């Protein structure tokens, strides 16, 4: 908001007119999008559908969460690692068997 007030103080009449046109266009676009959303939601309600029906369960991440295998505490910070992927710096040059959970 401060930037807008500063712009208003320092802008010329033509710059203010151009900003006014841009704002009117942005407001009109927002109103069109809001109206389109209302129409879509009304159509969904009319057909007895929900947004979840459209998205479906295929959009969910099917990867499972992997439990950490190793835990180490360094400088009061606890670091955990599943044992997969690149070895974190906290576990570099240590015997992993000592930190197995």
From TrEMBL:
Keywords: Coiled coil. Residues 13-47 form a coiled coil. One of its GO terms (molecular function) is DNA binding. Gene3D superfamilies: Histone-like protein H-NS, C-terminal domain (4.10.430.10). The keyword Coiled coil applies. Residues 60-101 form the DNA-binding protein H-NS-like C-terminal domain. InterPro entries: H-NS-like_N, H-NS_C_dom, H-NS_C_dom_sf. This is H-NS histone family. It comes from Pseudoalteromonas luteoviolacea (strain 2ta16).
